Structures are given as C-alpha cells and as structure tokens.
Amino acid sequence: MPKSDATTRAFGSFKPKKQTAVVEKRSKYYPADDEKTALPRNFTPGVAKLRASITPGTVLILLAGRFRGKRVVFLKQLPSGLLLVSGPFSVNGVPLRRVNQAYVIATELKLNVSGVKVDALTDSDFTKAKKSKGKKSEADFMAQGAAAGPVVTDERKALQASVDKAIEASLGETEKAYLKSMFSLSKGDKPHEMKF
Q: pTM (2 decimals)?
C-alpha cells in the first residue's frame, strides 16, 4: 500500500537512518596484571584536636617509641598537632620530644609549667637535615661505618637545661619519684579499670 502525501508530511520520511558504530582502535599492549590507578583524594588533613584530659603540665605515660613506659610532662601542642613533652631529662632521661597523642595516657597529676618558655619551639626544630645524595667512593663507604651518631647542639642543651630547671621548680620528692618510675602492666592487671 503506497504512502499518501499527507502521511509523509505529518510524520516525515520513514526511512531508517544508517547508524555507524564507533570502533575504538585498541592498543596492542595489554598489562599482565591489573594496573593500579590513583584514587581521587579530596581529604586535606588538619591539626588534631587536643584531648580534653591533656592540658599544659599534665603528666603523660608514653605507650610507644624508645621511651615507652616513661612518664613525661606535657608542655604544648605544636602546629602539626603533635605534643611537645619533656621528662624532664635531668629526672628520668626523656629529652624534649614530639609525641602523637594517640600513644599517650593522660594521668590526673598536673604540674605548674607556667615558668617554662617553649613558645619559640616549632616542628622545624625537630627535623633532621637532609643528606645530599651523590656518588660515594669506596673510601666514603668505609668511613660511613665509623661515623658518630647524631650530635646534640649546645643551643639544644641550653634549652633542655632551662626547661628542666623550670619544671623541677614545681616538683616535690613524691612527684620526682613518680616521674622516675616506669609504667608497666602485670598479669591480671585490668587497664580499663585503672585510674591514672
């Protein structure tokens, strides 16, 4: 049955349009394993909020690191969010250090640290100088084994002595003995029931 002119005008031409499939040219390379692609990271870390139980002068127990089990005095929170603590060094051998608050237990003992001047200390004071990477000779390699450990500057020693003196002014004999003692758990101890 032939189409009338009216039908053609109303609905247009009924000829099917040719559809061309878009063919992507595949590369000959195909990885043997799945390639890792970086995920989009829209997170910018901020400064950690200081726990309510940690205030300047609070005695903390270190749970990790070289001085784990030692009791230290909290001085201030650094711009990076880490805590600035000191033993004091003259009492229990813990120098001025940065500590993550996730690895400390706050105790109820608080000392007066209003005389301690650590406002000038920042995170950059605790970073090590980067060593230049260059080709090393055999003599350099042999000398590397004989190299001494990290050297503490006279400026840092003077700062440590002034901080120790200011903290020790507020220490009695019982507080000194408490800071010298190590924290440890024995068999049968229940940390969740302890009061620090």
A: 0.70
182 CB-near residues (< 8 Å, 6+ apart): 69, 70
CA 84 – CA 71 distance, rounded (Å):
13
Q: Note the pLDDT tens digit of each residue in 28-70.
A: 887 778 888 888 888 888 888 999 999 999 999 999 999 999 9
Cα 171 to Cα 145: distance, rounded to the nearest angstrom? 42
Which of 71-85, 133-147, 165-179 has the lowest average pLDDT? 133-147
> Which tens digits make up the pLDDT trace of 88-122?
999 999 999 999 999 999 999 999 988 888 888 88
DSSP structure string for 5-71: HHHHHHH---PPPPPPPP-PPPPS---SSPPP-PPP------PPPPPTT--TTEEEEE-SSTTTT-E
Q: Are 103 and 65 in contact (CB under 8 A)?
A: yes
